[in-house]
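Input structure tokens:
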């Protein structure tokens, strides 16, 4: 089983923010629809701190993963695994470590992070704007080809759009 995961944030009655984590599970990279969907609300998340985004995202993602019947064989995230070739960790690297370095993580980012030679650019559909693919636990070139093969004729694969919508609507 493969999984796409995303997290969104919104105000909580306490005055802080809550996280809404979503996951779509699928079997094959080319699947047009997930076979399962999950949403978990985390009532309070850490405040945003520049350079420490993972402190908000990681607890939400781990709470979501705890709800799945089986752990995913690979996880696709909205974001970066590595921020650069100097070893700066993105959220994906923090998630990989939290999962005992056993579950490959593929990062698919919509925006460039400075000049990041660790990220491979991927054009999908007729878009002139690339996606930026990073990975750990799987060769980044292989990860790029798998993301390229995902269903959808537009820049963002169908299942990544779906998980984004789930967490925004959750």
């Amino acid at each position: 089983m493969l999984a796409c995961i995303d997290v969104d944030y919104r105000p909580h009655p306490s005055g802080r923010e809550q996280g809404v984590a979503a996951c779509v599970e699928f079997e094959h990279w080319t699947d047009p629809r997930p076979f399962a969907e999950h949403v978990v609300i985390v009532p309070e998340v850490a405040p945003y701190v520049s350079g420490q985004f993972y402190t908000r995202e990681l607890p939400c993602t781990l709470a979501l993963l705890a709800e799945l019947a089986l752990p995913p064989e690979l996880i696709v995230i909205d974001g970066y695994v590595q921020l650069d070739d100097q070893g700066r960790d993105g959220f994906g690297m923090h998630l990989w470590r939290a999962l005992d370095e056993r579950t490959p993580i593929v990062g698919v980012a919509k925006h460039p992070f400075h000049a990041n030679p660790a990220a491979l650019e991927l054009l999908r559909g007729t878009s002139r704007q690339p996606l930026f693919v990073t990975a750990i636990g799987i060769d980044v070139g292989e990860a790029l080809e798998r993301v390229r093969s995902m269903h959808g004729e537009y820049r963002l694969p169908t299942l990544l759009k779906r998980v984004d919508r789930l967490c925004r609507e959750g």
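The chain has one domain: 2-169. The chain has four helices and seven strands.
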